[in-house]
Amino acid sequence: MQSQYNEGFYTQEELKNLGFASIGKGVLISKLTRIYGASNISIGNNVRIDDFVILSGKIEIGSFVHIGAFASITGGKAGVKIGDFCGMSSQSKIFAVSDDFINGYLVGPCVPMQFRNVIEKPVILTKHCHIGSHSLVLPGSIFLLGACLGPMSLNMGRKLKEWSYYIGNPAKKVYDIDKKKITDLEIKLEY
User: Fold this and answer.
1) 85, 89, 91, 97: CA torsion to nearest 10
2) Is residue 7 one of the residues assigned to a domain?
3) Residue 74 domain flag
4) CB of 83 within 8 A of CB of 47?
5) Are strands 142-143 and 159-160 parallel, antiparallel or unpaired?
6) pLDDT band at residue 104 using 50, 70 and 90 as cut-offs
7) How far is the C-alpha of 69 from the C-alpha of 8, rounded, in Å?
8) CA–CA separation, 48 vs 71, rounded Å?
9) What is the residue range of 53's domain?
10) Which family does it belong to (predicted)?
11) Which residues are CB-contacts of 38 (< 8 A; sequence separation ≥ 6)?
12) Nearest to 94 by CA among 34, 134, 37
């Protein structure tokens, strides 16, 4: 049954036929999402992925995750792991793979590999982590439990502390997050 909430999304049957490594229940993925290497992508339950999102490489997405329009995840071989109750706002980007722009190499996918230095490090969002609109997360970034990156911010491979809100370029901690309220709500949800 189509409604304003799921119109334009793949059906469960269509999702199964896309060839994901695994796919949960209650998953809504826009038909306008670009998916490269679905066999390397695992998706949990109750996940929504909006229009014009790009998914590429090794990616694990937990349950109760939202990925907003125009976001992108480039997992490469190192991979991106997004835990339960995490989110990416519109236009946010995660890269587990990137060219070395500093140490005198050529950059870009059109350049032969012997002239490039490609950096590949896993990116991990543990649980209750969020990335604000227009923010950028680079290889090696780790978001500990409840860590959030505000809008228009940059994490250049740092470990963000538990239950902390960061903002800026480069991102700096500006607030503590109320973990008790969030964990109490999670318990009430009984997922």
Assistant:
1) -30
2) no
3) yes
4) no
5) parallel
6) very high
7) 13
8) 12
9) 12-189
10) Belongs to the transferase hexapeptide repeat family.
11) 18, 19, 20, 21
12) 134
- State the Cα–Cα distance between residues 57 and 7, nearest whole angstrom: 27
Spatial distance between the Cα atoms of 104 and 78, rounded to a whole number of angstroms: 23
Q: How confident is the model at residue 7 (pLDDT cuts 50, 70, 90)?
A: confident
Which residue in this structure is represented by tokens 């860590």?
Answer: 147
Tokens 């590999």 label which residue?
A: 113
**Domain total of the chain:** 1
Integer Cα distance of 56 and 2 in angstroms: 28
Place of tokens 């780790």: 142
Question: What CATH number does the domain containing 86 carry?
Answer: 2.160.10.10
Binned at pLDDT 50, 70 and 90, residue 1 comes out as very low
Indicate if the pLDDT at residue 4 is higher than 70.
Answer: no
Q: How far apart (Å, rounded) are the C-alpha atoms in residues 130 and 145? A: 10
| Burial of residue 71 (number of CB atoms within 10 Å: 0-12, 13-18, 19+) | buried
> Rounded distance, CA 60 to CA 74, Å?
12
Tell whether 4 is covered by a domain.
no
